[in-house]
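In this section we walk through a basic example: taking a raw amino acid sequence and producing a predicted 3D structure, encoded as C-alpha cells. The instruction is simple. Fold the sequence below.
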Amino acid sequence: MQNFEETPAHTIQSVVKAAKVMEALADAGKPLSLSQIAEAVSMGLPTAYRFLRTLAFLEWVERDPELKLYRIAPRVVRFAHSFFDMSDLWSFAHQHLILARREYNETFNLAILDGTDILYLDRVKTKKILDINLEIGSKLPAFCTSMGRVLLASQPRAKARRLLERSARTAFTRHTITDTTGLMTILDAVRTQGYAVNHGEMAPELLSVAAPVSNHDGQVVAAVNMAVNADHYDQPAVETTLIPAVISVAAGISKALGYHQQPQGG
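The resulting C-alpha cell sequence is shown next.
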C-alpha cells in the first residue's frame, strides 16, 4: 500500500483516509471484515465504519449482508477502463502482446513500477499457463520478479537500493535472493545487458524473461515479460529463443511509443 504518512500541505485528510480504505480492499484481493479494514488502515472501528458507509453510498464498496464482509464494487472498474482508454502505453502494447502470444504460444505480461511492487497493466495468457493467480491490476514484489528487476534497474542506483531496502523481501522459494547486496549485483547486470531472467524465485516451476519498454524521451516506462514453464526450456533455448523474443517485443512497443534507439558508434 502507498505510504500516506507524509502528506503535503492543503491535503484533505478525509480523502486520504478514504483512499487508504480503498487501497486496503484492493491490496487484500478478497473481501474483508470491518475489523480487518480498521486494522489495515489504523483506524478505530467507528471511523472505519463511517468511511465504509460513505463509500458504499457512492457504490465504490459493497457489503455482503450475510457474511458482513466488504469488497470493491464493480463500479470502480469504470475507472480502470477510463485509464486504459487514455493510456497510449496499454493501447500500443496490447496488440504486440497478442501477436507475441500467437507466435510463441506463451504468456506475455506488461507491468509498471508501483513503489516496491510491480503493477500488471496487461496479461495475455495461453491455456497452458502455470497455476499462478495473476490478472490485470495484480501486484507482485519487484525485487524477485523479472519485470521488477528491469524496472528497478532503470532507476538511479541509489533509488533502486532504497526501494530494495524498503521491500519486505520475503523468500517465496529456496531460490529467492533476498539480500540487498546480491540484488544490487543482479540489477547492475540487468542494467548492462538490457534484460532480466528469473528462474524459480517466485515459483519453482516458473521461468520468466523481461525487457524494458521506453517512451519517446528514452525513459523506461514499463517492462514486458514472457512467462513459461521452466521444464520446457533449457539454458540454450533461453538464450537463443526467449531472450531475443522478449527484447524484440519490448522494442516493438517502444517504437510504437516513439522511441528511436540511437545507433552505436560515431
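Looking at the output, two observations stand out. Confidence is low (pLDDT under 50) at residues 1-6. The first strand starts at residue 61 and ends at 64. In the next section we compare this with other chains.
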